[in-house]
Amino acid sequence: MKSVSYTRAHRILHWLIAGVFLFILLTVLLRQNWMNKTQMGEILAAKLSEKGIALTKADAAKIGKAIRYPMWRWHVWAGYVLIGLYIIRMLVFRFQGVTFKSPFKKHLIAKERLKSIIYVLFYICFATSLLTGMLMVWSPRTAAWQQVHHIAKLVHVQSLYYAVTFIVLHLLGLVIGELGKDKGIISRMVHGG
């Protein structure tokens, strides 16, 4: 079986996308856990209460949200970077070719077809999360767009599940490849051919 050689453009884009992707997941993890607005608000209210200052839960949550807002702006800016990287990735695929086989190709073994389907689904989900993120940030805050914004937000929040699933499948595939017939795949993604 001939091993795949990755061009410099493919490798650089892969690692840039991976880094920004992981950074965005970190901001989501922080937002949902340690920097959760309700939890931060409760801590703030408790500390102020020790000083004799009363704060309602709603006000505490608003302050918690304001505290994490700068971190969330980084999430949005990283999303813009990902949009640019995604467009560049699609252009590289167009001009240098994709690094996986078409899942619709005849006589493709099941393992290769599954791998290709996962990559196609990843790029579709990736585009969907970028598009819904843009809709959330750029849709007008009018009554006509309120439903679009709500649906975009629902879909965008679900992006976490495909992202984590893809990372797990990707890492599992790398381990299986390294232990199986595709030895050196990690080295090729770092160094090239």
Total helical elements: 6
Q: Outline the low-pLDDT stretches.
A: none
Q: Report, as a whole number of angstroms, the end-to-end distance.
A: 15 Å
Structural class estimated from helices and strands: mainly alpha
- Per the principal axes of the C-alpha atoms, what is the gross shape? elongated
Helix/strand order: HHHHHH
Beta-strand content estimate:
under 5%
The helicity comes to over 70%
The pLDDT mean sits at 86
Number of strands: 0
Biggest β-sheet: count, sense, barrel? none
What is the multimeric organization of the chains shown? single chain
Rg result: 21 Å
Helix/strand layout:
Blueprint: H1 8-32, H2 37-50, H3 57-96, H4 110-138, H5 143-179, H6 185-191
How would you describe this protein?
- The chain has 193 residues and is an all-alpha fold.
- Helix 1 (8-32) runs antiparallel to helix 3, helix 2 (37-50) packs antiparallel against helix 3 and helix 3 (57-96) packs across helix 4 (110-138).
- It is built from six helices and no strands.
- The two termini are 15 Å apart.
- 79% of the residues lie in helices and 0% in strands.
Please tag this protein with its features:
193 residues; mainly alpha; 6 helices; 79% helix; elongated
What can be said about this structure in brief?
The chain is mainly alpha-helical. 79% of the residues lie in helices and 0% in strands.
